[in-house]
Amino acid sequence: MKIVVLGGGESGVGAAYLAKKKGLNVFLSDKGAIKNDFKKQLIDAEIEFEEGQHDEARILEADWVIKSPGIPKKADIIFKINQKGIRLSSEIEFAAEFTPAKIIAITGSNGKTTTTSLIYHILKSDNLKVGLAGNIGKSFARQVADQNFDYYVLEVSSFQLDDIQNFRPYISLLLNLSQDHLDQYNYNYEDYALAKFRIAENQENDNFFIYNKDDEMSMSLLEKLAVRAKKIPFSTKEKVKQGGFVHKDKIVVKLEDEFSMKIAELSLVGNHNIANSLAASIASKILNISNESIRNSLMTFQAVEHRLEQVAQINGVTFINDSKATNVNAAYFALESMNQPTVWIVGGVDKGNDYTEIENLVKRKVKAIVCLGIDNQTIIDFFKDKKESIYSTSSMEEAVKVCKSLTEEGDTVLLSPCCASFDLFENYEDRGNQFKAEVLKNKID
């Protein structure tokens, strides 16, 4: 079987490595430059590759093409692969075919990384043999090749789910839906939401689908779609017969038995993290983790980097890095949890954002807006009649300096950009790391 892998990053190189280890004929192609570290891995594994171009003739001879999630669906080479009827899969689809491990897969517009990391923390703390992969950590395919885990906890994006055929998690979680990546889904919210629901499309009645009963779009689509897995809801607004809910000052999970703990004991703060903790607790109960173990894990879990991460307090001003908030709904959760006057850093590559969702929060909680991007006009145009203090910046150094000049003791500076990062940064991690470096540099100064 001829395998072609498109993309020479973490997932692509991992997929090529797994294919090679399984004795398959594999070739990797990246239209851009491959980083030296990944190039070394390919050479060490004796995997043939090219960079800076696509050898279309060779690619179109493949029996199976594995596509990295960063390659747009509308790319010319993808069109040609589909036209020829060649099987096109994501790394998660490819790797899942080579492991008997139980897969817990998490998707949603917001909270994926936090909830994935939390479930992994719970399972790891209970001494299960478990891997963490997908959109987080080391490549799923590489772990399948080299490890012998009984469970995998995978953070899964809509782009990865676009390219599945047989992917069937034991437990799937759909945390929430909000308008994101609409530029990749014909600016159609339902198309994007349906891509997320593909996480459950191959599940059968011996599998589990955990969903958010408070999420309007999820509930609307659940009425139309034939989800065969056992459906288990969670809600922070109402009690459910089976699933997870909030009762007074506690989270409660009712399945065959009951688990509960005080919200005040959770290590994660904010209403959205109560929902994430409920979803993670349901998955853990399905896997027969003890109540004591779940409680201890929920109390000891450390928040994910770049997600409402407190960087420093300087002269009474708190600096918070929420660089992972790449859509409006994520920024909504961040702004909602602010309790002090906030200088808000926002901007980047707009993905068809509708800022009306956060308009009232900005009016109530934000004292100044600092735009950070190559083109800040969309944000300025939306908020100019709603906030007097709006500043345009085009580097992290400039943005942090402006924020410092605007704040006084008791204020918060929040980086929660609503947008993708690749106009000025490599990715959201680079953006968050630059923010932290600038904040701490100013502290030293």
UniProtKB/TrEMBL annotation:
<feature type="binding site">
    <location>
        <begin position="108"/>
        <end position="114"/>
    </location>
    <ligand>
        <name>ATP</name>
    </ligand>
</feature>
<comment type="similarity">
    <text>Belongs to the MurCDEF family.</text>
</comment>
<protein>
    <recommendedName>
        <fullName>UDP-N-acetylmuramoylalanine--D-glutamate ligase</fullName>
        <ecNumber>6.3.2.9</ecNumber>
    </recommendedName>
</protein>
<keyword id="KW-0963">Cytoplasm</keyword>
<dbReference type="GO" id="GO:0009252">
    <property type="term" value="P:peptidoglycan biosynthetic process"/>
</dbReference>
<dbReference type="InterPro" id="IPR036615">
    <property type="entry name" value="Mur_ligase_C_dom_sf"/>
</dbReference>
<dbReference type="GO" id="GO:0008764">
    <property type="term" value="F:UDP-N-acetylmuramoylalanine-D-glutamate ligase activity"/>
</dbReference>
<feature type="domain" description="Mur ligase C-terminal">
    <location>
        <begin position="306"/>
        <end position="418"/>
    </location>
</feature>
<dbReference type="GO" id="GO:0005524">
    <property type="term" value="F:ATP binding"/>
</dbReference>
<dbReference type="InterPro" id="IPR036565">
    <property type="entry name" value="Mur-like_cat_sf"/>
</dbReference>
<keyword id="KW-0573">Peptidoglycan synthesis</keyword>
<keyword id="KW-0131">Cell cycle</keyword>
<dbReference type="GO" id="GO:0005737">
    <property type="term" value="C:cytoplasm"/>
</dbReference>
<keyword id="KW-0067">ATP-binding</keyword>
<dbReference type="GO" id="GO:0071555">
    <property type="term" value="P:cell wall organization"/>
</dbReference>
<dbReference type="InterPro" id="IPR013221">
    <property type="entry name" value="Mur_ligase_cen"/>
</dbReference>
<dbReference type="Pfam" id="PF02875">
    <property type="entry name" value="Mur_ligase_C"/>
</dbReference>
<dbReference type="Pfam" id="PF08245">
    <property type="entry name" value="Mur_ligase_M"/>
</dbReference>
<dbReference type="Pfam" id="PF21377">
    <property type="entry name" value="MurD_N"/>
</dbReference>
<keyword id="KW-0961">Cell wall biogenesis/degradation</keyword>
<keyword id="KW-0132">Cell division</keyword>
<keyword id="KW-0547">Nucleotide-binding</keyword>
<comment type="pathway">
    <text>Cell wall biogenesis; peptidoglycan biosynthesis.</text>
</comment>
<keyword id="KW-0436">Ligase</keyword>
<dbReference type="InterPro" id="IPR005762">
    <property type="entry name" value="MurD"/>
</dbReference>
<dbReference type="InterPro" id="IPR004101">
    <property type="entry name" value="Mur_ligase_C"/>
</dbReference>
<keyword id="KW-0133">Cell shape</keyword>
<comment type="function">
    <text>Cell wall formation. Catalyzes the addition of glutamate to the nucleotide precursor UDP-N-acetylmuramoyl-L-alanine (UMA).</text>
</comment>
<dbReference type="GO" id="GO:0008360">
    <property type="term" value="P:regulation of cell shape"/>
</dbReference>
<feature type="domain" description="Mur ligase central">
    <location>
        <begin position="106"/>
        <end position="283"/>
    </location>
</feature>
<dbReference type="GO" id="GO:0051301">
    <property type="term" value="P:cell division"/>
</dbReference>
